[in-house]
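agent> fetching stored inputs for the FE3-S4 cluster docking request
agent> found them:
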Amino acid sequence: MTKTKAIYIKTFGCQMNERDSEIMVQLMGEASYRETSRPEEADCIVVNTCGIRGKAAQKAYSLLGGYRAIKDLRPEMIIAVTGCVAQLDGENLLKRMPHLDLVVGPQNIYRLPELVRAAQRRAIQAPAVELRGDFVIPPFLPKTAGKGSHRRFVTIMQGCNNFCAYCVVPHTRGREISRKPQDIIDEIRHLAAHGVREIILLGQNVNSYRGLNQVGGKDENFPVSDFPTLLRTIATLQGISRLRFTTSHPKDLSPELVRCFGEIDHLCPHFHLPVQSGSDRILAKMNRKYTKADYLTKVAELRRVRPGIAITTDIIVGFPGESNEDFEETMNLVNFVRYDSAFSFKYSDRPNAVATSFADQVPERIKSERLARLQSRLEEISREIRVSLVGTTQEVMVESRNKNAEEQWSGRTTTNQIVNFVCDHPLTPGQQLLVRLEEVCRHSFRGQLIHQSMTEKT
Ligand code: SAH
Ligand code: SF4
Ligand code: F3S
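agent> prediction call returned; pasting tokens
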């Protein structure tokens, strides 16, 4: 029998990176590695990196720099850099930090066990950073045990063809590649059979999902499954009671996808629709291919078919050339849409992204001022929306028991709000209950359990 070794993995970035880390841990598990939370005892350290903003990449560099001491003590252990920074930096990472053994881009994570073995043999390796247009995401049945097992991510496509002027993702994940519908369905069936109740479909741009049906092979003219068709199929699968997805590009939000929100009960009333800016001039410079008016029409349509739907977004402040007036347009849009919550960022220059060469950069001080103003308004609106929900009864999916108080439980509403409530007997993660929202806390609600007969829908 092979001796068990230990792998330590640190993940930065988006949910797709989290899913990729799970995949790597599982693959290494099959090669006799157990996961450890202590990098200093690991035989293999993996840092799965994100390069979306300069700061994200910086965090990865400083962590990797710190692992030099571990490598000095135990030269036989392997340090692998995976993910988007690995893809961007390639060979340069190995030159800059000679204590690293492996550089593995997002399309190459499935090769990790083989690459680690070669590194152990001290075989000299070039970075594994090919990005192929004909890459096929391998069919892969996830491990189902472990915490949070009632709610799982399923990647349906990866990569991006949009080339927003500020964005590094098309350069790190390559062009859009959709998985076969059958592979996705097999994966979800497998999860459901092991007690998973909520599925979050992942892709950089799920709306442009185009999966070749199995029979179609590589024939482009054969029937393909688009995103709404895929959603309708998944919604019929036994055992899945909640379905979410992220992320969507507003230009690809089709009338058919809007209709899905009116027709598919299992589809949670939550839509993450990144707007980036409220100024048409800046949207055009960003290469977003929609106007503020187009965006508002889509939001209105979603709200028409699904009243109460939570709309969330991403916003960038200080994109090159953003004037005070442009920024005020973003503030106006925020006041008009009233987002349930939002992520907002200061624009950051990224390698290979065209905006990096734009001349009219906004000074750091102005970016900081704009971000502070925007975030305080977003927070205010989000709180007002949550306060307005106090007194309503919501369907809550049980997530976990509070470690410090036996009878305290926490769960999520269909709009993804966290609710803490008391229940004096055991509940199962994934179970659905009715809870009345009683009080708004900082990032959650306190609620009162109303009804527990609403067990798992199948
Ligand atoms: N595929 C997603 C975006 C993923 S990146 C989409 O198209 O919506 C998540 C967010 O990071 C983006 O929506 C954007 O708001 C932000 N972002 C991306 N590049 C950035 C940059 N160079 N500077 C600041 N924020 C950026
Ligand atoms: Fe980046 Fe734009 Fe693609 Fe989103 S749609 S990943 S922001 S290029
Ligand atoms: Fe970051 Fe790559 Fe995701 S850059 S946001 S980890 S696609």
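agent> quick read of the result: The pocket of S-adenosyl-L-homocysteine (ligand 1) is lined by residues 52-53, 166-167, 204-205, 247, 249, 274, 276, 314, 316, 345, 347-348, 350 (CB under 6 Å).
agent> awaiting further instructions
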